[in-house]
Fold this sequence. Notes:
Elements: E1 12-15, H1 24-29, E2 51-52, E3 64-65, E4 67-79, H2 107-112, H3 126-135, E5 141-153, H4 168-177, H5 182-186, E6 225-229, E7 235-239, E8 250-251, H6 272-285, E9 288-290, H7 291-302, H8 318-326, E10 329-332, E11 340-343, E12 359-361, H9 376-381, E13 411-413, H10 420-428, H11 445-463, H12 474-477, H13 503-510
Parallel strand pairs: 1-5, 8-10
Antiparallel strand pairs: 2-3, 4-5, 6-7, 9-11, 10-11, 12-13
Subcellular location: Nucleus
Pfam families: Tau95, Tau95_N
Main location: nucleus
Amino acid sequence: QAPAFKIPSRTISAVEHPFLVMDVDKGLETFGPNPQFQSVLNPGNPHLSVPIYLHPEDPTSRPMMSHYASSHNIVFKVTVPKRTGRKRKRGSDEPWQGPLHEPSAHPAQEVTNSTSFGSVAKLDEPKSLRQKLQENVGRYHAEAVGIIRHTHRYRGMVDFNYSMKNNTFLTGFADKIMSGDINKFREVSIRHGTDTSSNQEIIAPPLMTQINIPYYYHYSQNPYVKAVDREDGGFEMVNTTAKLKSVGHFIGIKDPIPLAPSARPKIRDPMFEDVHRVLQMCMEERPVWTRRSILNRLVTIAYDPQHPERRIPTTLSQQVVKHAIQLVGYQFKGGPWRDALVRYGYDPRADASGRIYQTLIFHLRRLEIGSMGELWQEIRKRGVTGVKGSLDEHVYSHIFDGKTYSEDGKVWQVCDIEDPLLKKLFSEAEPRPTCDIDGSGWYHRGLWAKARAIMKCKMRAIQFGRELKDEDFEAAIQARDDTPELDSARSIAIATPDLRLTDAEWELVRG
């Protein structure tokens, strides 16, 4: 039957020291010069914190505060006999050397009167204590001292400590003030004026950081990181949702043209090669496309019944098309071919034949604002052109015929304009002797401004249901087509028919 112990009703509190205490005196010094351990025994003040100084010799170090925690631990006192002092060679079975200590007739009384304290310097480790009990069966004494119901623990982070050891002013000030000697207090003096020396002594702030609770840095692998086999037989970790690096070229209007993409994107979609092959075929048909027109061309190829070998799946990822486009062409940041996809190696600025690929950009609708409760993803989807479609749905949205236009884009090319009036203007226009890379390209500025004004007016009329005839643009047609002198105004005013918009319609235009 196991022995029973009576636990005395004692008030015991515990303070868990974060260090491994090898010297009790030095361990007590970390609690400051005047530790108030009596206040810890008061269970009615659980919010009390016990400061501990990790550098007690540094007066500028900031203490770490404890936090109160309820506990239910038993303090157990185990007393074993003193060592006999006899020795033998370690690891051998030779007899013990030295005088034999005769055991007392009352071993319990002998061990109780012992004054050696062993709960320090790792002397009370469970493995060591168990060995001592096995070696002194019937000769040790055990008793329950009490129950610990209040424990102060240190689980916060220590503040940064800026060493002031080499600061002569602060070290001298601390030696005098903290000495407790009134005569040394009088020796403290502070120089007046401004210190202009190169090596100024600056006292560190009282605290460096206000964060005392550690962050939760528990490691967890990203579920979207997958191991992918390489061609050399190895593998690499790939984040399937990470944004891929752009390999295309977005050049300025005066920059030299690139001949190839900067790299090849790491896309492992099985459809990528098929899309890349079809896009290369499109660039052979026509060297310059808008993004909308080449997407429409992909749709027509996907549904082409006459050439099944060229067909591609009707449902494509936007990411696949986005990165495949970068492999077949580059883009201009501005100028007459802004936002157009140009085949690598082809420079539309070098020859007047590239004028039919110039772009016209119109902002005809204001930015849509979602209603209350609508998700931002739904607002974003309304402005994104998908690849999936049918032959009767949006495949001609890049063409302007003067009767209808699609709002799924804002960029048109001269070669995609089927309106009879505008088509005649562009076809009969005389090219410039040199390319105006900052403005009208290979067209004269007068004709370019005239065509833009007529096309925008026709789009406004379609938008608000107005009917216009070609005769209504007679004043615009009569405007000069040539390029004004260099010292003239940059903008050219073109007279267009009055659409008689209402206030509500003007509100839609202005946004």
